[in-house]
Each structure stands twice: as structure tokens, then as C-alpha cells.
Amino acid sequence: MSEPPPSMPPAALHSPSAAMACPTCRAAWRGAVTCSRCGTDLTALMRVAVRAWEWRQATRAALYAGNRAIEALALAHAACQVHTTPHGQRLLALALLVNGHMAEAYALIEQVLQE
User: Fold this and answer.
1) Total structural domains in the chain?
2) Has residue 7 got a pLDDT over 80?
3) pLDDT computed for residue 30 by the predictor
4) Which of 52, 64, 97, 103 could anchor a disulfide with 83, C-beta 3.0 to 4.6 Å?
């Protein structure tokens, strides 16, 4: 079994909310560079997961700073566009709330709770 690159964040590798699959055979992604079912190289998939994780980390930092709410919202949207996870959606809802988008945040939270 192939090992993930050392730069891969642990949460992106084994998160139960990360519903990623092999683009060729749709086998569940197990954090390996090569699909265990069909042998497809999954490096690009791993890069997408890492990039979304980095954007979520940047969202948290922007929210923590207290004066970068608009930036946090843009980062959270970007992360959800490339790799949607329940935790990422909750972070997006928080960014929406901080920016005064109450109805959108509420609708997103309702959606996450139903999944």
C-alpha cells in the first residue's frame, strides 16, 4: 500500500466526513496514493483534500483575527467548493454568521444537521 505524502494533514487523510472516492471506479478513498481497487493514481485527489484543508485552516485564522470576516467567508466558500465536509460546512456557517448572513447560515446548518 502506498504511503501518503508527508505534507498531508492527518485530518485530511482519515476524516470520516471526507466522502472522497476514486474518480475511476468510485471506491472509497482510503488515504493512499493509489486506488486499492483499480490502481488509479490518486495524487490529484489528495492535493484537492490538502488545499481544502489549508483553506479551512486559513478561515479559522481569519476568524480568530477578528477583523478579517470577509476574507474568512471567501476562504470558507473556496474550501467547500473543492471539498465539502460537514466540518467545512459548519465553518462556512460560522463565517456567514460573522458576516451577518443569518438566513444563509441557518439554512446551511439545517442542511448539515439533516445529513
Assistant:
1) 1
2) no
3) 85
4) 52
Domain that holds residue 75: 10-114
Helix (H), strand (E) at residue 64: helix 43-65
Residue type for 84, please? T
CA dihedral in degrees (58, 62, 64, 69; nearest 10)?
A: -140
What is d(CA 35, CA 86) in angstroms, rounded to the nearest whole number?
24
Report the predicted TM-score, pTM, of the whole model to 2 decimal places: 0.76
Residue 37 resides in a domain: yes
Residue 3 lies in a domain: no
Q: Is 27 contained in some domain?
A: yes
Residue of 14, 94, 83, 23 lying closest to 47 (CA atoms): 83
Residue 17 belongs to some domain of the structure? yes
Task: Quote the distance between the C-alpha of residue 37 and its chain's center.
Answer: 24
Helix (H, G, I), strand (E, B) or coil at 34: strand
